[in-house]
Amino acid sequence: MQTNLADFIKHTREGEEAEAILRACVHCGFCTATCPTYQLLGDELDGPRGRIYLIKQVLEGAEVTGKTQTHLDRCLTCRNCESTCPSGVQYGRLVDIGRKVVEQRVQRPLHERALRYALAQALPRRWLFTPAYKVGQALRPLLSKGLQDKLRPGAAPGQWPTRSHARTMLLLDGCVQPAMSPNINAATARVLDALGVQLIIAAKAGCCGALRHHLNEQEAALDDMRRNIDAWWPYVESAEAIVMTASGCGVTVKEYGHLLAHDTVYADKARRISALSRDLSEIMPAFETELAALLQGKIAGRVAYHPPCTLQHGQQIRGKVEQVLRTVGVDVLLCADSHLCCGSAGTYSMLQPALSQQLRDNKLANLAACAPDVIVSANIGCLNHLQSGTETPVRHWIELIDAALKPAFQ
Questions:
Q1: What does the H/E/C string look like for 111-167?
Q2: pTM for the full predicted model
Q3: What pLDDT, in 10s, does the model give residues 268-281?
């Protein structure tokens, strides 16, 4: 793709990155076949190829309109197109650059600005979100069905292990997950404790930065990243890894090195942190022998797995969760179109509710066809979003292992 960037972005860091991405695109259209919004809407501008053309026009100085913004807003940033693209186009980075420019040039309606501001301020701040979420749960019977579905209570966390081990790993506690599903991190700590690994939570680490970054508050997101790096830095020499139990956080932390490459103070540290970051599914295969001995045949029922986009497309990690579960005797079921997004996509379900719900219902219909007793996934957004539309239990896959391990250590 030939480009002629406008002066406002030419020779800038983001301009050079965008130009390289644009020039890699060969217009083949393979991406449209796997784009969830294109499949729903059938509009070229609601698929990756069309959005790439829109971004190209914006970066070349064309007029920026609300229509351009709408088509970019509808993108889930699921990055399924990156898995499909034969040319390796880094669409996720391009759409971040394009959205930032459009956000600066098109003023949103007041109600959109207010909602986005509230989300950007409340969700990343655990001290704000947790009490607000608890109030919402207390008032749940008085709320609309849509809000009631989003506020379903998660499993109680149970006891955090107290033993010390020579092997240590850091754990990102996260911002919304401790309130929405507090058992996930506790279950991870218990499982790894049983395998001889101690998990440490750095007190000052918080939101990974993904929420603000995808709401176009990118400078604030970089500050979130710098805070986490500072919180983790005292542990980097002793910790084997930084464990991510939410794949949405993991894909962002693994990009710290790229996102902070321009920061002379943090660039080297960010690369080190990204290199240490591991999704939980990358950690557990090393313990397969021990898990198989402890758990073979102890997890009953039909288990359907929904692989999050941030894991299979963002991090390009496939098959590892299924591998761990099959090692302990679970016949993991993958539904039809398992490569497609469930519609959660961070704040997307709140900003694009109609599209999000349609994608969720399509996903749940495919999962239901597997007749599962439980649905498992690896990202808090997917878990909460899917659970809002089904009575079938939806859990993090590590919770299955934790529940099966308990009898072995009682």
A1: HHHHHHHHHHHHCCCHHHHHHHHHHHHHCHHHCCHHHHHHCCCCCCCCCCCCCCCCE
A2: 0.94
A3: 999 999 999 999 99
